[in-house]
Amino acid sequence: MKYAIGVDIGGTKTAIAAVDERGVIVSQSVIPTNLQIRPQAMIAEIQQEISRVIEESGVLIEEIAGIGIGAPGPLDSKNGLISCPPNLPAWVDIPVRELIGRSFSVPVLLENDANAAALAEKWIGAAVENENFIYITVSTGIGAGIIAEGKLLKGLKGNAGDIGHMVIDPSFGECVCGQWGCLESIASGTAIAKRASAIIGREVTAKDVFRFYKERDPDITGYMEDVFNVLGVASVSMINTFDPEKIVFGGGVSKFGEPMFDSIRQYVRRYALNPTGRKTEITAAKLGQNAGVIGAAALCFQNG
Ligand SMILES: [Zn+2]
Questions:
Q1: Is 164 among the domain residues?
Q2: What whole-number distance in Å separates Cα of residue 199 and Cα of residue 79?
Q3: Which of 109, 116, 165, 251 could form a disulfide with 70 if both were Cys (CB 3.0 to 4.6 A apart)?
């Protein structure tokens, strides 16, 4: 049996897991991502934790195919650099692959976190049967991993699929990136909490919005219908561009569940350009919060 170490570096926490070649986690750990210390010091903590996870798993270093790292973009996956992610503010051109590789005599790979999650869904999740699908995570931000003809579409530096900054409607106002009306500034968990707070007249979180929606608050259900439609618009753009068999939604916002999927399906049925595109399956991710580490490990079991 071969194993891989998956490392999922996020803005608040870093998950590390030893994963076997069937995708089963044999040991794991989660540590806070400390943004108050230098990135090099945080990477040293991650190295220690990787060693601990390996020790706890009982796996020998000879049995480890590699260490896969998933991290927020923008990054440079080919050169192993974390470039300048908004949620890891001090991590500018950090050679994370080289730094982690110094402590372990195995290959180290780096990929965008949404891309890694797409690989996890392909490996053991909601898209095992699919050669052409798109994984979209709707969470604090929005990102996508595109699997085309069975392979992850990476682009020049590994940043393909950054659909959060696809413009949907400039009238929604300015996005953090400087453009107007990006998908992420309308339909991410952060955007939902902000807009719902304005509707309700006090500060609420995305979790509160979820509860109001369940209680059928008329203002919130109406507003969320608009958000689901926007996710439908994004889905149609992706379907028209990539011709996938399926779109898999993950991230916290996908917990709105069937009402959200139904709205997106209806929009797609109506507006996707080609007749097969209108039948694109719209479904929930299967792996939940472990998608990141499992996908990072999947990097090491991929050919090419
Ligand atoms: Zn933007």
A1: yes
A2: 45
A3: 116
**227: DSSP letter:** H
Query: What is the distance in A from the centroid of ligand 1 to the CA of 117?
Result: 21
Domain-embedded: residue 26: yes
137-190, pLDDT tens digit by residue?
A: 999 899 999 999 999 999 999 999 999 999 999 999 999 889 999 999 999 999
Cβ count within 10 A of residue 219: 11
Tell me the backbone φ, ψ of residue 22, rounded to 5 degrees: -95, 0
The rounded Å distance from CA 182 to ligand 1 centre is 5
Task: Identify how many contiguous H helices and E strands the chain contains and give both numbers.
Answer: 9, 12
Residue 253: beta bridge partners? none
Residue type, 49: E
pTM value surpassing 0.90: yes
Q: How far, in Å, from the CA of 141 to the mean position of ligand 1? A: 10
State whether 112 and 148 are in the same domain.
no
Which has the closest alpha carbon to 240: 273, 271, 281?
273
Range of 8's domain?
Answer: 3-118+290-301
